[in-house]
Amino acid sequence: MTPPSSNVRSRPPATTAALLLASALLLLVGCGQKDIRTEYGSRSGYGASSVNGTSVLGRMFENAGHRVRSWRLMSPSLSKADVIVYFPTESGPLSPDASAWLYDWLCYSYDEDTYQSEDKILILVGRAYDAEEMYWKQTQASAPTGLQGAYAGKLAQAPRQGLTGPAGPSKGTVDEWYDIATPGTATKVKKLTGPWARGVDASKSTIEHSKTIWPNDDLTVLLADGDGHPLVSEQAYVEDGDDWDASESNLILIENGSFLLNAPLVNHENRKLAGRLVDFIGESPKDVVFLEASPTPTISDSDPNQSPPTGLELFRVWPIGAVLAQLAALGVVFALAQFPIFGVPRRLERPALTDFSKHVGALAKLLAGTRDRAYASGLVRKYFTERK
Question: Which ranges does the record mark as transmembrane (predicted)?
Answer without folding.
Answer: 317-337
